[in-house]
Amino acid sequence: MTNKKENLMDKIVSLAKRRGFVFPSSEIYGGLAGVYDYGYYGVEIANAIKREWWKTMVQLREDIVGLDSSIFMNPKVWEASGHVSGFSDPLTECKSCHIRLRVDHLLEDKGIFADEKMTEEEINKIFSEHKSKIGCPKCGGKNFTDVKSFNLLVKSNLGNFTGDLKKDPVYLRGETCQGIYVNYKNVLDSSRLKIPFGIAQIGKAFRNEITARQFIFRTREFEQMEMQYFVHPDQEMEEYEKLRKDRWQYYLDLGIKEENLKWKKHENLVFYAKEAYDIEYKYPFGFSELEGVHARGDYDLTQHSKFSGEDLSYTDLINNKKYIPHIIESSSGVGRTFFAILCDVYNEEEINGEKRVVMKFPKKLAPIKVAIFPLLKNKPKLVEKAREIYDLLKLDYMCEFDDNGNIGKRYRRQDEIGTPYCVTVDFDSLDDEAVTVRDRDTMKQERVGMGELVKYLEEKLN
Ligand code: ATP
Question: Of all protein residues, whose CA lies closest to atom 27 belonging to ligand 1?
Answer without folding.
Answer: 218
